[in-house]
Amino acid sequence: MLSVSNLIIALLSIFSILLLSVSYFIPQDSEINKLINYYDFGLCAVFLYDFISQLRKRKKRWRYFFTYGWLDLLSSIPVVSEFRYIRVLRIFRIFRIMKSFHLLYKFVITHKKASLYGFIVFVSTVILVLSSTLVLYFEKDVGNIKTAEDALWWSYITITTVGYGDYYPVTDLGKLTASILILNGIAIFGAIVSYITDRVNTIKRKSSLD
Description:
The chain has helices spanning about 5-25, 30-55, 60-75, 90-100, 100-110, 110-140, 150-160, 170-210. By secondary structure, it is mainly alpha-helical. InterPro entries: K_chnl_dom, VG_K_chnl, Volt_channel_dom_sf.
């Protein structure tokens, strides 16, 4: 049975392949490549959690594992040099998504609100990754955001709208990117509050019917 988590995993799988493709054109010793590796490690954690969840839900666990579960497991290996090319196995996940595209489309049509929350999570994740990567690219030679760790800390502080001020963009393109990330933070936290409120109201309605 499809759910909003399946939709998010499907979208993140496609994004991870794009991120993987870009990383092959960036020098391995660069800070930008290091930042992409950090995000890839985070995506691996998400995919590994999804693999474990799928394995626990299946009645025929070994059948799932020996059909395509082992591919999901291998594609969840973090980006370390020894397993760099194994990540290409994620493309098989994309093939499965394309095979069940009509089911995903039907889910989106019949569960519009849940799908909207899923899309917001996905878009916010993409904006976070792109914003921190672009700011590091724009600022590494002129600003104080020079390392992958600086970009990660800056993006976390910016998306939460805390803004300590220890790291900040100085270029025009960097400031524009920061503005987009701030708006993204406001949108994602608004969506989270809306989702929680919707879930609480749903539970209350079920309780009143019982």
